[in-house]
Every structure is written in C-alpha cells, then in structure tokens.
Amino acid sequence: MHVIREAEAERFQLPGVEFTGLAAPSRGSAGLCTWKLTVEPGHGGDAPHTLDRDEIFMVISGAVSLGADKLGPGDAVVVPAGEPISLTNLGEGPAELYVAITAGFTGYMADGTAVQPPWAK
C-alpha cells in the first residue's frame, strides 16, 4: 500500500490552475492517475485540448463548466477520449475537482503538440 498525503503531495502550476499529484506510476499506481485540480476564479477560455483516454472530473467545491455542461459539488462528468476539454471556473472563489484517468495517457494541445504532464508520471 502506498499512502499519498495531500499536504506532502507535489504541486504543479499553470496559469490559473494548480495540480496536486496524487496517484500515478511514480507514486505507486501502475494503472491509474489521479490529481486534485484547483481552478482560480475567472480562469477559463483556454484553447481546448484532447486526451487519448477517457478522463473523469469530480467536483468537490465551486462551480465549473466543461464545454456546455455546468457542474457543481458532487457532480461528475466522463469526457470520452478525443473529445475537446476546456474548463472554466464559473464562481467567485476557487473550484476544486478530483480528476482520474488511466496511466500512460497522452494529451494533445490545440496545435496538435503531444504532452505527458508531470503530475501524471
């Protein structure tokens, strides 16, 4: 068993978004990646990206939109592989979500650039 404590977890920053790395191959999980996503108020409108695997978003707090879907605490959405993803915080405070995806996925930015984010390694 591999315990990952949020207070000690590695954090990764992008403009308006913080990724708290939880389960991943480098942290004891061969098959699944999870992270906590904190989205600052007003963040959104980034160019959509896609993934080669299904990705699941589970809202802990706040209100967000993922495409045309508006989500609040307790809501979850499964984004099928290949579907464009663009996340917007609809609230006045930070939004928090848990995200899960199969380990070893590849993301594709709007310009087609392939990425494997460090929080999922």
Automatic annotation (TrEMBL):
Domain Cupin type-2: 37-99
A Pfam family assignment: Cupin_2
Protein name as annotated: Cupin domain
Species of origin: Kribbella rubisoli
